Amino acid sequence: MLIIAKLLGKSPFSPLQIHMDKVANCIEELPSLFSAFTQGDRASLETAAKAISKLEHEADLTKNDIRNHLPKSVFLPIARASFLEILSLQDAIADQVEDIATVLTLKPVEKTAPFFNMLNQFVEKNAAVFWLVHQVVKQLNDLVAVSFGGVEAQKVKKTIEDIAYKEHEVDLMQCDFLKQLFHVADDMTHSHFYLWRKIFQEVAALSNLSEKLANRIRMILELK
Amino acid sequence: MELVFLKYLTILVGLYMAWNIGANDVANAMGTSVGSKALTLKKAVILASILEFSGAFFVGNHVSETIQSGIVDPTIFSNDPVIFVIGMMGALFATGLWLQLASYFGMPVSTTHAIVGAILGFGGVIGGIHAVYWLEMGKIVLSWLISPLLSGLISYGIFSIIQRQIFYQPNPIDATKKIAPFFVFACFTILTLSIIFDGLKNLHLQIGFPEALILSTSVGLLSFGGSWAFFRKAPSHQHETFYHNPHHIIGLEKAAKHLQRVKLSSHDETKKKVTSILQEVETLSKKVAENSQFQESHTPFAAVEKIFMLLQILSACLVAFAHGANDVANAIGPVAAVVQVLHTHTVLPHAVVPLWLLLLGGFGIVLGLATWGWRVIETIGKKITELTPTRGFSAEFGAASTILFASKLGIPISTTHSLVGAVLGVGLARGLQAVNLRTLRDIAVSWIVTIPICAFLSIVLFYILQAIYV
Fold this sequence. Notes:
The complex is a heterodimer of chains A (224) and B (470). With 224 residues, chain A is mainly alpha-helical.
């Protein structure tokens, strides 16, 4: 009798983690993208942006695959809505990376040294927040094995608290940058001002989304 | 002469049904244990054979009696016992036919529903409305609804206990060692109780309920003690396997605390030096803590599952026993009715299941298991790896206790449905990664379809057999 086998559907948690890995692939392209940007190398900037766009598309395909294979009749250990929200938040991060790449290709900027230094640090900090939430998603398997509770959940909760703290640090840094930007704003062309403003805004969205994703995962935990 | 031929044919079809049950349904009991590698295929087949056989032998008579004379009143046919014989044969043949058709169409059909439907059809149409014990029939149908719910409830409860008492504990392995003996106790007590209470009639031993309860509880307590001693020796949470053990973390934290004190009370050169040392210690302590956490995340739960492998073997045995006890009746209940009438040439109001038929039924199941069932076990084992030992144990325990309870009451229920209910129970307790609820619709549809079709088939076959032999 194969009924029991049919009753146990295909687990969507491994595909979710695969999707997160694809999102991570996009993030991994950020350093080469920004080094091309700061060096003013237009050609490699375009290639990096194209590579990111391709990776983002791959992540999209995985996302659609997961959604298509998750009919209403599948019962999950977490609410379906939670699962789908986690998936779309993951995907939003990939989209964000693509947006960043697009903004960087809009127009070459003058070598404004303090901003360049700050920008690299800023990107690193945002990526660090992402890698933490990536680690959380990677732990989902262990969480499923213990029904989202116990020591395992406490550990994940701690990581999520770290994420919130790091995101706060990013916010402080962004505030610092904005002050500097407005300080020199009068000497800049309007388009450059807008571009710098936009670049930092888009990069900061990475950590915001990561924190959102982490908090969404926190909601499925069974914490005492 | 011809009726004698029919008798042997009936026995043969009964044997075929038993074979079918052994070939297809035993996999439900043993599949998970083979899948989780708790048992090798060979060991699983041997264990299942022993337990299916003893289930059929010790407890099989209750349900068989119900099938034989609890659905249709045999005394209605006392004027013409041959009609009853032919009707029962027709029902048996119809069930066999329908099972073949259903497996051809890939429908998840329950043998129990088929045989009850077939007997109901023959009794209701040939014997008339009054030939059917409607109250009894109502009880059976009600039990079909209740049994998956009950087994689901028990499994939900057992898995919730495992979650709260083991998974959510700071040290899951030590918690398992404390909890596991209670589960062993429950398994052994239930198994012993169902064998010795009212089960040793076949060996001419009558044991009343109080005595049986005392006896089985003592067996349970013995197994509790044995398993407690056994699990105590199992490897504990091994700190040595970690890269860094917790004592390192505590030691470093203490060092940092003392350095902090020195830093606050010192000046100049000392203060500078202490500050730098303190920083170093703090970073080291953080690193060590991170490393040990990472190491910790996998080991304990794998060890818990490993302990539960042993428990899962027990629960699988319980399911095999319960399955033998309940499902052997589907094959030999009608055969018993036919054989009895042909031997005594009268219809008795109270059924007696001959011992040799129970043996034959048990043998048929074992034969089915040995010739075909092992293959199904292997397939199932590969497919349901999500049912890890903790999940498997919960589901099997819930299903087995429900089936045994029903068997003792003489109610024919579907073992597969009970198991499906149990798996759903574990799923509801957030135990499974994905449960395909669409399967439930298939089950419900084939459930509803089976009864009228089998009733119809059995009537048709009755008229055919009647035309030939009467």
